[in-house]
Design brief:
single chain; mainly alpha; 2 domains
Length: about 270
């Protein structure tokens, strides 16, 4: 890896680790407002450095850096942090700061440990301007769904502790709904741009490739959440379990399909 890219990658990883530490301390602090500001500032600094890293990689590769597992994991970590910071403008849920920072740090560590970071030429099937749009929109959706799942798990823990009506539980329930609404729009855009790209590359909008099929299953799970939440008034435990089921489908779409099923997206390995 280029020295500048390696430096920015490592700095962003350290920044996320620091943010996770500050966020964890904040959970038990009496002066939460001040520490919350420190957590947010640290996350902003870390994601800014990571953005520089991704930009340097884009320039070096002369393409969007979204073409393999290493690059997609880096994008996944970035997306989760960006979604969290966007949510933070409207809603302060301290536990999500811990989850976000720790997720980003562990994802970058996992990517750098188990996947090759060397920049390689794109396969012919990926040499398209649609690559950046399709992958970016999908992973913004994935980032939102990861945060929603974390909020849902936290809600269930709070509810099991016998305090489902307190402010924390209500904020977690709201965070789940807001992040899923955000992610659903991006996943929809990702599926549509993927279909357009598929037609351009292979002459068909839809081929029932395993990745396409599981993306559609994921979309339907979150469509059920959206319908039940906003049309039937679902909240609390029922909404949380649908959110968790949706993210389980996301994980299988992202990891399981790549390694367990073969198809047109096998290059993602």
């Amino acid at each position: 890896m280029d020295p500048d890219m390696e430096l920015t990658f490592n700095l962003s990883l350290v920044g996320y680790l620091a943010a996770s530490l500050f966020a964890a301390i904040n959970l038990f602090s009496k002066n939460r407002q001040r520490l919350a500001t420190v957590v947010t500032a640290t996350l902003i600094a870390a994601v800014t450095v990571q953005t520089v890293y991704m930009g340097l990689r884009w320039i070096a590769a002369e393409r969007a850096p979204f073409s393999n597992m290493f690059e997609s994991l880096v994008l996944f970590a970035w997306a989760v942090v960006v979604v969290h910071l966007a949510l933070r403008i409207r809603l302060d849920v301290p536990v999500l700061g811990v989850v976000t920072a720790l997720f980003a740090a562990l994802t970058l560590a996992y990517a750098s440990t188990f996947f090759e970071s060397a920049i390689k030429p794109l396969m012919p099937a990926l040499r398209s301007n649609w690559l950046a749009v399709h992958v970016f929109t999908c992973f913004m959706g994935y980032g939102a769904f990861a945060l929603a799942s974390a909020a849902s798990v936290a809600y269930l823990i709070v509810a099991r502790a016998g305090a489902p009506a307190n402010g924390t539980a209500a904020a977690l329930d709201t965070a789940t709904a807001k992040t899923i609404s955000f992610g659903f729009l991006f996943l929809t855009a990702g599926i549509i741009t993927g279909a357009v790209w598929a037609n351009s590359a292979w002459g068909t909008y839809w081929s029932w490739d395993p990745k396409e099929t599981w993306s559609l299953i994921t979309w339907f799970i979150y469509a059920v959440f959206m319908h039940c939440r906003f049309m039937r008034g679902w909240s609390g435990r029922r909404a949380a379990w649908v959110s968790i089921a949706g993210f389980a489908s996301v994980v299988f779409t992202y990891f399981g399909v790549n390694y367990l099923l073969s198809g047109l997206h096998s290059y993602a390995k």
